[in-house]
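Write out the 3D structure for:
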Amino acid sequence: MKVQNAFLGFAASLALALAATGATAGTVTATAPVSVTILAPVTVAAVQGLDFGMVTRPANANSNTVSMDPSGNVTVTGAGDGTHLAGGVTAAKFNIAGDAGITYSTTQSLTFSQSGLTNITASSPAATNGSLGVIPASGSQEIRLGGAFDVSAASPIQAYSGSLTVTVSYN
């Protein structure tokens, strides 16, 4: 009986305590704001091809490196006696478009379809407007690229053609 009275006393105390705190069963809900901004995709388009002009291959046993910077300046260096002939040359031009302030990076590769030239590389790009790697307020940025290759006495005399590929990764 003492145990039963003690249990009843404990149960009564618990009931009073719960009633005093106002504890009840139920559910609660909260709502958080949600937002999203949809941006236009970044695009890249080739505007002008890369043209090194005409180069004479070395007649001696040495090679030359023919380089063009993004401004279109061609230089011939090395122990070979090859030359660059005066004439039309053009650096490649690409247009990158997207929302202002979007940041991006590029990778580029230069290839020729014919064999005979070695150490073929594309230059790093240079922006003609704004800071390279950030689309300016106009929403469009032009980048220019050059490249380089080695020519030797063993390089076949022919017209060379190929491609310059620019890949844009944006954030």
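The mean pLDDT is 89.
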